[in-house]
Amino acid sequence: MAERIEMLRALMRAKGWDAVVVTGSDPHSSEYPAERWKQVEWLSGFTGEAGDLVVTLDHAGLWTDTRYFIQAEQQLAGTGVVLHKMRVPEQVPIPQWLEEQFGTDGLVVVDGLCVSVDFAQSLPGTVISVPDLLSRLWTDRPAVPQTPVFTVDPGQTRAEKFAWLRDFLREQGCEGILLTALDEIAWTLNVRASDIEYNPLVISYLLVTLEDVSWYVLKERVEDPETEATFSILEADGVRLLPYGDIDYLGPEFRGRLFVDAATLNYQLYGSLVAAGVPLEVGTSPVGLRKSVKNPREIAGMREAHLQDGLAMERFLYWLQRSVAAGREITEWDAAVKLGQLRADLPDYRGDSFATISAYGPGAALPHYVTPHQYAPVIRDSGLYLCDSGGQYTCGTTDITRTVPMGRCSALEREDYTLVLKGHIDLAMAVFPEGTPGSRLDVLARAPLWRSKRNFGHGTGHGVGWFLGVHEGPQEFRQNLNAVPLQPGMINSDEPGIYREGKHGVRHENLLLCVRAGETEFGRWLAFEPLTLCHFDTEALELRLLDESEIKWLNDYNEHVYQTLSPHLPREIADWLREKTLPV
Q: Which long-range contacts (CB under 8 A, 24 or more apart) does 446-450 make?
């Protein structure tokens, strides 16, 4: 990694560049990039999902948040790259740091394909876009992927979505909208693929105008029958299929005012549109919010996905606890593989929704722990084991975390286990006025920990797509002041945690469906319904820390899990689940 950074510095000296900023994203501001765009990993060795790299002639720094501090320190050791911590009181963001180093006179270079307009415009000095700048160093860089494309039926046709977008364009006084976020494109076209691992997305751009629809999607010759059939259906619906690279010609060809979202539009494409004189209306894409509110068919699909997923989870936990108790040597990696095999047996399974986090003891203290394939720690018959995982199903997407006692737990482990579950339950029980944003509910999950002067550094919950990204917005449970109100039909995770470096970690996660809870003289009210179906283990609880309402919620939830899943489980697992879900 140090040699690669020195190669980049040699290029910088030759070109007269002061700094190069490399982000962990792609031309579509994706959270998870395809292999081609894992540039931060290639340069530094850091594999976390959130990290940006700045290289100057005498410094290399990685900016990441609290979820990855421990991981970053381990992976950056020996590379010469310094960790810069974000989401802490003393944080110095990249724009501020660059200004402190170079003032407003620095020559800052970015791969304009892989930074958003918003980010590029926040940088000080003269910002230059050099598309694919690492390609001259990264000689075996992967190509842009093209995987089989297929259609889905979420309960709303693409024609209906086109009509809705055209109504939006008329309201905005625009002739077209350019969608650049991959999940928004997949949602609009009712298509899925596997261009990015764990994400059923198609790397592409979509232009919807008042008259037609153009999909910039073709990367190479299409030869698989599934994609050919899908493309024929789309063309019959009036969608023009164009080469992915032809997006470079959009500026000279487009006539009229174009709506773009600067949060996902890449800086290189933005520059070409501006240079071509295209009038731009910059705002927030309407697709994100519309996509976050699931329709009845999508909700029914998510219920089915969680039923199937719950069966796999209960089979897994039964196998794990029985195997470890019997003295079998089960590593973290063995457990992750077993869970994947159990999910793969399900009828609607299409792959995991992210890499399974299988962590025992100290490993669980890293919120985004990477389970090692080789020399993985053995899961012992004491302490806590954490598993954060999820599946992609043709009927929906799941995301679940369970922390379970493997045997005797310390007093501190039991306390942490209970306080995190208490916070999870308190958020799940929330009843709140219509119009309330998730940022105002976040404290419900943290309050039990705060009262004991404990905390966690990540958000409490994120939106989840329907057979799409496991992380989506615009709503969330987080301390950040996000004003987007929760609406019936939105699905969010509820996942408070606590992490003690070198000791243990605890996280409890369900997905919650926002539902209506009635109307009074004080207005309309909303609440949450858990979609996730998997018991919470009660053996590590300190019951003195739970009040009556929390105990009732826990007992009711576990009973619901048993009644729903037991008819579909083998007798021995159903009997085990009965014992696990008895009221406390």
A: 446/496, 447/423, 448/419, 448/420, 448/422, 448/423, 448/545, 449/419, 449/420, 449/423, 449/496, 449/498
Q: 74 CB contacts (<8 Å, ≥6 apart)?
A: none
Mean pLDDT of 243-248: 95
Check residue 377 and report its DSSP letter: P
Model's pTM, two decimal places? 0.93
- 145-154 pLDDT tens trace: 999 999 999 9
Residue type, position 84, single letter: H
What tokens appear for 166 in the block? 């055209």
Whether residue 123 contacts residue 94, with contact meaning beta carbons closer than 8 Å, is answered with yes
Tell me the Ramachandran region of residue 16: left when phi exceeds 0, alpha when psi lies from -120 to 50, beta otherwise: left
> What are the φ and ψ backbone dihedral angles of 183, each rounded to 5 degrees?
-70, -35
Cβ atoms 349, 393 nearer than 8 A = yes
- Two tokens, residue 184: 């928004």
Check residue 219 and give left, alpha or beta (phi > 0: left; psi -120 to 50: alpha).
Answer: alpha
Residue found by looking up tokens 């190669």 in the block? 7
Beta-strand ranges (E) seen in 536-579 are: none
Q: What is the pLDDT of residues 80-94, one digit of tens each?
A: 899 999 888 889 999
Sheet of strand 491-494: strand arrangement: 431-433, 523-530, 510-520, 491-494, 461-463, 472-477
- What CATH code would you report for 2-136? 3.40.350.10
Q: Please give the average per-residue pLDDT across 349-357, as a whole number.
A: 96
**Mean pLDDT of all residues in 555-574:** 98
**CATH match of 150-286 with 3.40.50.300:** no
Instruction: Give the chain's count of helices (H) and strands (E).
Output: 17, 28
Would you list the domain boundaries of the chain?
A: 2-136, 150-286, 293-580
Of 385, 365, 358, 360, residue with least CA distance to 458: 365
Closest CA to 290 of 156, 392, 435, 175: 156
Strand 400-405 and strand 384-389: the pairing is: antiparallel
Tokens of 416: 């942490």
Q: What is the mean pLDDT of residues 128-140?
A: 93
Quickly tell me which residue has 């290189």 as its tokens.
268
Picking from 290, 269, 135, the residue whose alpha carbon sits closest to that of residue 204 is 269
- Do the domains 2-136 and 293-580 sit in the same CATH topology, yes or no? no
Q: Are 84 and 98 in contact (CB under 8 A)?
A: no
Q: Two tokens at 417?
A: 């286990």
Helix (H, G, I), strand (E, B) or coil at 472: strand
Q: 407, exposed or middle or buried, with CB in 10 Å at 0-12, 13-18, 19+?
A: middle
Q: What pLDDT band is residue 414 in, cutting at 50, 70 and 90?
A: very high
Q: Which tokens hold the place of 215?
A: 């999909």
Q: Could you tell me which CATH number the domain at 293-580 has?
A: 3.90.230.10
* Residue ranges with strand state E in 191-329: 191-192, 205-209, 213-218, 239-243, 258-260, 280-282
- CB-based contact 366:437 (threshold 8 Å): no
Residue 300 phi/psi, 5° resolution?
-60, -40
